[in-house]
C-alpha cells in the first residue's frame, strides 16, 4: 500500500467515525424539540479570507460555500425539513462591481455543479428553491437557478431556500404589487382591499413556514433586511464565528438554546 492509499484509507475511517459520532449526538439532540425551519444569515466571508491571508476576491466566499455544504448535511441528518440561506442581499449589489461579478460567477459555478449532482442522483432528497428578485441576476445564472429548481422539485427530505437579490423591503413591495394584480377585477371601479393573508401569500418566501430559529454568524445582532416580516416570533442566535468557520458544535449549541427557550417561545406565541 503506498502513502496515497494509506491516506485514502485513513480518511475513509475518519469520515465513518465522524458520521457515527454525529448520529449519536443528533439522536440525543432529537430527544428535545427540533426547529422546523432554520434560517442562516451567512456573514463574515471576507473577514475569514483576511484572517487567513487568502488572496482573490472570491476566496472568502469560496470558503463560505464549503461551509454551506456541511451545514446542510448536518441539518438533513438532524431532520430539519426547511433551511433558508441569505446568500446575497439587494444591498450587496452596491459592493465593488468586481466583487459582485466574482460572487455571481462563483454562484453560477456552484449551481451548475449542484445540477450535475442532482442529475447523477447524488443530492439525496434535497430540494433547492431560489427566491428574491431573480430578474436582477444575469441570464446564465437565472437559467441555471431555474434548472436546479426543476431538477430537484421531486425531492422531499430537505427544502433549501436560497435568498439571492433579496431583501424583505423588496419582498413586501413585490408581494403588495402581486396581490393587487391578483385582486383587481380589471374594471378599476372598486378600490382593492388587501388582507394581511393576501400579501403573505405573495411573499417570495411563502413556500416555507416562518423560521423558528435564525442563526447569524460574523458577530452582528441585526437582521439586515432578512425575513423581518417572518421572524417576529423566531429565536435569534448570533455568534461571532465567521460563516466559513461555522461547525457542527455551533449548530448543536444553537439548537440546544432553542430547546432551552422552548417554554418562553411557546408562551410568546400564545400571547400574540
Ligand atoms: C457574507 O460575507 C457574504 C455575502 C454577503 C455575499 P461578507 O462578504 O459580508 O463578509 P464580511 O462580513 O465582510 O467579512
Ligand atoms: Mg458582512
TrEMBL record:
Keywords: Transferase
UniProt KW Transmembrane keyword: no
Any Pfam family: Prenyltransf
EC number: 2.5.1.-
Enzymatic class: transferase
Stored CDD domains: Cis_IPPS
Domain of life: Eukaryota
Cofactor(s) required, per the database record: Mg(2+)
PROSITE patterns reported for this sequence: UPP_SYNTHASE (PS01066)
Keyword match Magnesium: no
Pathway: Protein modification; protein glycosylation
Similarity-based family: Belongs to the UPP synthase family.
Function: Catalyzes cis-prenyl chain elongation to produce the polyprenyl backbone of dolichol, a glycosyl carrier-lipid required for the biosynthesis of several classes of glycoprotein.
Xref: NCBIfam families: uppS
Protein name listed in UniProt: Alkyl transferase
Taxonomic source organism: Camelina sativa (False flax)
